[in-house]
Amino acid sequence: MQKNYEYDAVVVGSGPNGLACAIQLQRSGLSVLLIEGSEQIGGGMRSKEFFPGYLSDVCSAIHPMAAGSPFFSQLPLTDYGLEYINPPVLAAHPFDNGTSASLKSSLYETANGLGIDKGDYLDLMQPIVENWPKLAEDILGPFKIPKELIASLQFGLSAMKSAKWLSNRFKTEEAKALFAGMAAHSFLPLDQLSTAAVGLVLMANGHLKGWPLPKGGSQAIANALLSYFESLGGKVQMGWMVRSYGEIPPAKAVIFDTGPKQLIEIAGDHLPSIYKKKASEVSLRPRRI
């Protein structure tokens, strides 16, 4: 007997990943329902008035991958009200003596600010910046054999290292701190293998597309994504905190953009025991840098 489905897919959670997933499925001709527990769309990509007249970002504020993402860059979000502001200095690491090391859009301006590490910085970053348009889809997408094998291998030789190891190639505290600060966005110990990849990707995208600030706060990105999703025919239900899998309307596929703890609470009976064990370990693990 064929089961009657209300939707082709239901996406639970409206963070950037949930919104991107819902859009891609809807663009593919499927019927999609997006469910968000809060009365406000966006997950960590939200802005609120905590004080009257002052709009503050709840979580994310600067979006290093917003303009450089292969997926986001193909969406007509400017048609739905999104406007980016591009600051001349993307990020800075301050020191106790009042100086700082800065990441700027220009690869050479950044390198010039690192003194005797200028050459080492260019040797590290210039090949990645030049090859990034060919690398982005392979590196940011699902794991597969890369289309650009040689360029990917060259990137991987540096990316697979720990951030601590790679930062020690520099001589100055400025260069070391700048790279370590970028890699710290991994939320992993900096002596862990592959943490260098996060720093490399963020810095390369800064030199190519900048680290844009959405005008009106992070909520502007969420609002534009939602408007585009709805223009495609997608449905959204906000203020619906899903507590159990049985609440979700019948669908061929259910996708969760939640934390592991919430996923287990909602759909634990549908998950393998080994997966639940690993997900529980992740949700309980303290974050440290």
Report what the structure shows.
This protein is α/β, with parallel strands linked by helices and 289 residues long. The protein has two domains: 7-82 and 213-258, FAD/NAD(P)-binding domain; 87-209, no CATH class. It contains ten helices and ten strands. The protein has helices spanning 16-27, 107-112, 118-140, 149-159, 163-167, 173-183, 195-209, 219-231, 260-267, 273-284, and strands at residues 7-12, 32-36, 47-51, 54-57, 84-85, 89-94, 100-104, 213-214, 235-238, 251-256. Strands 9-2-1-10 form a four-stranded parallel β-sheet, with helices on one face. Helix 3 (118-140) packs across helix 4 (149-159) and helix 3 crosses helix 7 (195-209). It starts with 6 loop residues before the first strand and ends in a 5-residue tail after the last helix. The mean pLDDT is 90.
The number of strands is 10
End-to-end distance, in Å? 53 Å
Question: Quaternary state, please?
Answer: single chain
Residues in β-strands, percent: 15-25%
- Main-sheet strand order equals 9-2-1-10
Radius of gyration: 21 Å
* Mean pLDDT over the residues: 90
Order of helices and strands: EHEEEEEEHHHHHHEHEEHH
Q: Which regions are unreliable across 5 or more consecutive residues at pLDDT < 50?
A: none
Structural class by helix and strand composition = alpha/beta
**What about the largest sheet?**
4 strands, parallel
Total DSSP helices: 10
Residues in helices, as a percent range = 40-55%
Query: What gross morphology would you assign?
Result: globular
Domain unit count: 2
